[in-house]
Amino acid sequence: MGVVLKYALGAALVALATVYGLLALERSESTALRSQNANLSRSVAALTEQAQKSALAREVEAARVVRWTNRAAELDASIEALRTGDFNDEILDPRIAAIVNGWLPTGD
To answer: Over the range 63-74, which residues count as b (16 or more CB within 10 Å of their CB) and which as e?
Structure first.
């Protein structure tokens, strides 16, 4: 074998080793990127689920506000009816109706 052939084979070996090294580096980077992608996908899924739960909680709280607002309006109307005497005695417990109508002492 000639000297030139030995150098050519050596250069080819160095080139192959370099290509192999670059492929190994790319493989490791690819694996790292896949892992990072999986982590980010899980994070996005968790954040999406959290956003859905937050939206549901907002809907529940809005319904609760409406319910309590309506209840407060009913109570205000009842208090006003009791104050003005504009109510039907039949809907009240007879003892309460008697107190409201002044038939029994209120304990003052």
So the answer is: eeeeeeeeeeee
Residue type, 73: A
Q: Rounded to 5 degrees, what angle do the CA atoms 99, 102, 108 make?
A: 75
Q: Is the pTM of this model over 0.90?
A: no
- pLDDT value at residue 1: 65
Distance separating alpha carbons of residues 96 and 108, to the nearest angstrom? 15
User: Sign of the C-alpha dihedral, residues 19, 25, 30, 33?
Assistant: negative
Cα separation of 67 and 73, whole Å? 10
Pairwise CA distance, residues 63 & 57, whole Å: 10
Element spanning 22, H or E: helix 3-84
Encoded amino acid at 14, one letter: V
